């Protein structure tokens, strides 16, 4: 048998080598051959069909061992399959011919039907474990099976990958509906699902490669990669099979989403899942598939021809299976009951639900849509503001109460398994709304309070919540859920394209006879079922794990998936389904925010009209997300910052901090994405007005105050720590250089000797006060040619010391955007936002940001812009700033006491706190200040200089909101000269030693020195805007100096208290 089969294949190969002549002969005698083939009951076959079908027939025997196939025959099989794959890649005519062969689709189904049990037995154990990974072999047992059957697995997998490639290519033809219908008729799609399950079961096992020897590890890795390639090709074939075919999409969606486990979709009342009945919805979807089971006419003709002329002869591959509602397409009339709709009837139907209809199929036919269960569920869980504004924005008073509750219950929130507190209820709890019973069958509308799943105290969950399971660890439901954990970004593109193809509502898409958008219906099914929600979570987390950029194909495809969910008003529901109780914001929610932000950024480039449906839909989404920001994100982040402040002030123990650094990092990532979204929304005038209306400035100021109290500012140079490290390094060097018997004698006086040398270098005269201290200290430490010490190893910060780096800069950027004047005007600042900042005591918070903070390196520059627009046209802000600066204490410039405790007037040295440098810098004070330079003359000069452009504007402040041309007459400036003189007092040394907080502000100090040198106001040629900006910079410098120049006896006070 083996020799005859090989001989037959050899003859086929010889014929294939001469395929050009054969094809010519077929073309010449086409009519004659057609008549002869019709006489024997078989249509004419091309050489490619004959070779490929023969190869697949032998491959089935190879897999089943019936009949026995030898290696020589398999060599021909491999050659024919490889050649067929090459032709389907390159030759359009061959691809189209093979795609219309019913025999080939049946052979493909039979080959995979034989391969799946064989591969399962050789890879993961008995076939009975294929759909139940819990009963399968352990990873160690599976590893032993794979390494034992390595050679045969490799050969078979390579052939199966080629066969799946061919099946994928056969669907890329001018009329794809023909091979799509033939594929469904042959049930190849069912083999596709089983192959995906097998690949997932093999590749998702946690193989322990460390315990294997090198050879076994290489074998295991190679087989695993082959399974991944087969999985990728399966996904590509599935995408081609469902393309532009609603019946196939619905069939595929039903297969991958409806889990056989009835408990897969739990009764999560907070999400409204308890009202959804998956078994009812599955039956309705199956009825819709049966009503739409008609094939295209050409596919039906091919199937009928095969059943009437070829299958009755008893030759392989035999009859088509008659186990599906599709069989009526090729069977004689009257063989089976036909319940498909008439495709020629294109009249519109009105959905009507017959409650008392006994026949469920007829009841679903009268309804006309895919599933009433899905429609009813969607009406309950969609955005409650979908039709009209129902849910208002929570007030600032509620946000304040919410924040205080979060601060009071922070520790309990993580320690008591998220049990509900009595005093924290729904936003709408004051309305007396209660949970109603399920809606009636006739009226699917739901009367429960909108966002009921959202505004119940969502910080706290039921006590049976398992945090480990919520992160997706352990088995997950769904055919495709594990795929993102197996494939890399290049391999997984087909999965995203499948989801997009099933749910994205493209423009111009035709509706069904019942007026239903099938893409939206499948999108709702996607979120209604646990398998779909799990897959969405994994798709989102995939972007974070692989750190995909906005330009990557995966990110763009996922954005389109989120866009489809947004079109169905389901992002609020998706947001809640992605929640993890232990996190303020889960990683999946963070990625969802990033995708929504990308979506809004695209809107800014081409914004929809303000009165359009698209704009209103975006505003409602923004409304929901800002509610989350106000009621959950900001209160919980502020509570963590409050506890950080208490630990910083020794009011609590560090051990009381309830979360770890990883939790803090996730909270910061989520907060950053929310701020990024607000930044994007703030760029467009229409959406910015909503942020102003909702008083977004309050949340931003709450975060600023929390950061100021809870996180110490990081200096650019920390002198105290640096000196201590240098002393420790110097001691180590001295100990290494001294002999052992002198080490004990030299160790004690060393610190005193170092201190004397440091004081000597600190008191050396210099033109620059702070730099010589650093340079001289460096020269002393590295004297003798020693290399500088290596940087200390990075220290893992404790969770309570988490710096929230970069958050201040984002907040200030948003505040500056909210404060800016309307488009086309240069002044004044937005009066509503100005009053919001003043009302919530935000000026002090802004001034505290003037001090350099290495955690927020550009905060100082951004706060200057905020102060510019805050002071521009606001009398209240100007008066507040004048009083604040006037009441602030002078800088701490005191001589350094000598060793005996008495001040040493002969050495004019003072300690000074410089912005950006931690600790106090000891500087030499210049004594050659002209006697004629008095504080009064400086104050008068400053008054004349600053008042030259603002003297007439004091009375015009009330009309500052008129013209926006930027003229000086419409602006009110703070008079900083008197405040500066009050700060300087009569100590002339203060004038020369008030250093600018950062180097970039040296120009502002130079202007003050020029004024003092000329004893009067210079001839200023600055414009009004330049004068205002100069005053803001001066104010920022003064604010920074005041913040860092607090008195030593009050060093335990916070900077905010120092300003107050």
Automatic annotation (TrEMBL):
Keywords: Cell cycle, Cell division. It holds the Pfam family Atx10homo_assoc. Residues 419-455, 722-799, 946-972 are annotated as: Disordered. Residues 732-763, 946-958 have a biased composition (Low complexity). Residues 830-886 form the Ataxin-10 domain. It comes from the Eukaryota. GO terms for biological process: cell division. Residues 786-795 have a biased composition (Pro residues). Belongs to the ataxin-10 family. This is Ataxin-10 homolog. May play a role in the regulation of cytokinesis. InterPro entries: Ataxin-10/CTR86_families, Ataxin-10_domain. It comes from Cercophora scortea. GO terms for cellular component: cytosol.
């Amino acid at each position: 048998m083996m020799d005859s089969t090989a001989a037959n294949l050899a003859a086929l190969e010889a014929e294939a080598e001469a395929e050009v002549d054969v094809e010519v002969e077929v073309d010449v005698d086409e009519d004659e051959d057609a008549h002869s083939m019709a006489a024997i009951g078989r249509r004419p076959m091309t050489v490619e069909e004959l070779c490929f079908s023969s190869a697949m027939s032998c491959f089935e025997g190879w897999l089943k061992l019936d009949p026995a196939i030898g290696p020589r025959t398999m060599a021909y099989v491999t050659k024919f399959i490889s050649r067929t794959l090459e032709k389907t890649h390159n030759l359009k005519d061959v691809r189209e011919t093979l795609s219309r062969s019913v025999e080939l689709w049946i052979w493909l189904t039979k080959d995979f039907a034989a391969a799946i049990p064989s591969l399962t037995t050789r890879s993961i154990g008995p076939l009975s474990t294929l759909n139940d990974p819990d009963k399968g072999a352990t990873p160690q047992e599976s590893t032993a099976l794979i390494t034992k059957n390595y050679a045969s697995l490799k050969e078979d997998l390579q052939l199966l990958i080629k066969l799946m490639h061919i099946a994928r290519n056969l669907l890329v033809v001018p009329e794809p509906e023909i091979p799509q219908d033939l594929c469904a008729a042959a049930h190849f799609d069912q083999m596709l699902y089983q192959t995906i399950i097998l690949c997932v079961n093999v590749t998702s096992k946690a193989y322990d490669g460390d315990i294997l020897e090198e050879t076994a590890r290489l074998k295991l890795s190679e087989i695993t990669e082959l399974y991944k390639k087969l999985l990728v090709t399966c996904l590509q074939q599935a995408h081609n099979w469902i393309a532009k075919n609603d019946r196939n999409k619905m069939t595929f969606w039903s297969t991958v989403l409806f889990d056989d486990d009835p408990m897969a979709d739990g009764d999560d009342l907070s999400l409204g899942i308890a009202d959804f009945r998956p078994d009812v919805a599955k039956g309705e979807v199956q009825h819709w598939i049966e009503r739409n089971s008609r094939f295209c006419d050409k596919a039906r003709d091919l199937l009928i021809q095969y059943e009437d002329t070829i299958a009755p002869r008893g030759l392989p591959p035999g009859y088509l299976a008659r186990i599906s509602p599709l069989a009526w397409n090729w069977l004689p009339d009257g063989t089976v009951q036909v319940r498909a709709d008439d495709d020629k009837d294109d009249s519109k139907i009105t959905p009507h639900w017959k409650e008392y209809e006994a026949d469920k199929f007829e009841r679903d036919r009268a309804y006309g849509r895919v599933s009433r269960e899905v429609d009813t569920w969607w009406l309950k869980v969609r955005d409650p503001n979908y039709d009209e504004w129902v849910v208002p924005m929570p007030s600032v008073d509620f946000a304040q109460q919410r924040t205080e509750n979060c601060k009071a219950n922070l520790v309990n929130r993580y320690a008591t398994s998220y049990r509900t507190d009595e005093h924290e209820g729904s936003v709408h709890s004051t309305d007396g709304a209660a949970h109603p019973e399920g809606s009636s069958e006739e009226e699917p509308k739901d009367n429960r309070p909108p966002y009921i799943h959202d505004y119940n105290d969502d910080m706290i969950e039921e006590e049976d919540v398992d945090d480990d399971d919520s992160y997706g660890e352990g088995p997950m439901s769904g055919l495709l859920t594990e795929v993102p954990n197996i494939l890399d970004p290049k391999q997984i593109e087909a999965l995203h394209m499948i989801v997009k193809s099933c749910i994205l509502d493209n423009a111009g898409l035709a509706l069904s006879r019942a007026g239903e958008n099938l893409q939206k219906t499948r999108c709702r099914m996607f979120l209604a079922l646990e398998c779909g929600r799990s897959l969405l979570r994994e798709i989102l987390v995939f972007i974070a794990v692989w750190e995909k950029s906005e330009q990557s194909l995966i990110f763009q495809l996922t954005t389109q998936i989120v866009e489809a969910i947004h079109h169905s008003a389901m992002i609020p529901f998706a947001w809640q389904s992605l929640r993890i109780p232990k996190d303020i914001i889960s990683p999946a929610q963070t990625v969802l925010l990033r995708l929504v932000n990308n979506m809004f950024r695209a809107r800014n480039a081409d914004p929809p009209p303000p009165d359009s449906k698209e704009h209103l839909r975006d505003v409602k989404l923004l409304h929901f997300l800002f509610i989350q920001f106000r009621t959950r994100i900001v209160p919980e982040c502020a509570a963590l910052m409050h506890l950080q402040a208490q630990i910083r002030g020794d009011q609590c123990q560090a051990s009381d901090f309830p979360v770890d650094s990883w939790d803090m990092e996730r909270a910061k990532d989520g907060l950053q994405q929310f701020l990024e979204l607000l930044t994007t929304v703030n760029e467009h005038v229409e959406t910015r007005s909503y942020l102003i209306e909702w008083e977004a400035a309050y949340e931003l100021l709450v975060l600023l105050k929390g950061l100021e109290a809870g996180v110490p500012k990081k200096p650019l140079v920390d002198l105290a720590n640096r000196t201590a490290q240098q002393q420790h390094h110097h001691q180590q060097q001295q100990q290494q250089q001294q002999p052992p018997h002198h080490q004990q004698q030299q160790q004690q006086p060393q610190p005193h000797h170092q201190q004397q040398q440091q004081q000597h270098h600190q008191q050396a005269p210099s033109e620059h006060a702070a730099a010589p201290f650093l340079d001289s200290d460096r020269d002393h430490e590295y004297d003798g040619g020693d290399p500088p010490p290596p940087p200390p190893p990075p220290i893992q910060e404790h969770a309570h010391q988490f710096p929230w780096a970069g958050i201040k800069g984002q907040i200030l950027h948003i505040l500056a955007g909210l404060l800016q004047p309307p488009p086309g005007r240069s002044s004044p600042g937005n009066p509503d936002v100005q009053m919001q900042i003043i009302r919530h005591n935000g000026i002090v918070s802004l001034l505290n940001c003037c001090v350099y903070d290495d955690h927020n390196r550009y905060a100082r520059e951004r706060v200057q812009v905020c102060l510019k627009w805050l002071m521009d046209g606001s009398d209240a802000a100007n008066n507040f700033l004048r009083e604040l600066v006037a009441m602030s204490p002078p800088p701490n410039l005191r001589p350094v006491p000598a060793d005996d405790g008495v001040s040493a007037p002969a050495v004019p040295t003072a300690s000074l706190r410089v912005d950006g440098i931690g600790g106090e810098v000891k500087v030499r004070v210049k004594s050659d200040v002209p006697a004629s330079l008095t504080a009064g003359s400086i104050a008068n000069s400053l008054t004349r200089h600053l008042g030259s452009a603002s003297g007439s504007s004091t009375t015009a402040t009330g009309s500052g909101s008129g013209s926006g041309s930027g003229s000086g007459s419409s602006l009110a400036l703070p008079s900083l000269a008197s405040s500066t003189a009050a700060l300087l007092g009569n100590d002339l040394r203060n004038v020369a030693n008030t250093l600018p907080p950062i180097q970039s502000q040296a120009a502002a100090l130079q202007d003050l020195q020029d004024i003092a040198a000329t004893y009067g106001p210079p001839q200023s040629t600055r414009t009004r805007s330049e004068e205002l900006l100069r005053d803001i910079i001066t104010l920022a410098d003064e604010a920074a100096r005041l913040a860092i120049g607090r008195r030593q006896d009050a060093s335990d006070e916070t900077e905010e208290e120092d300003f107050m």
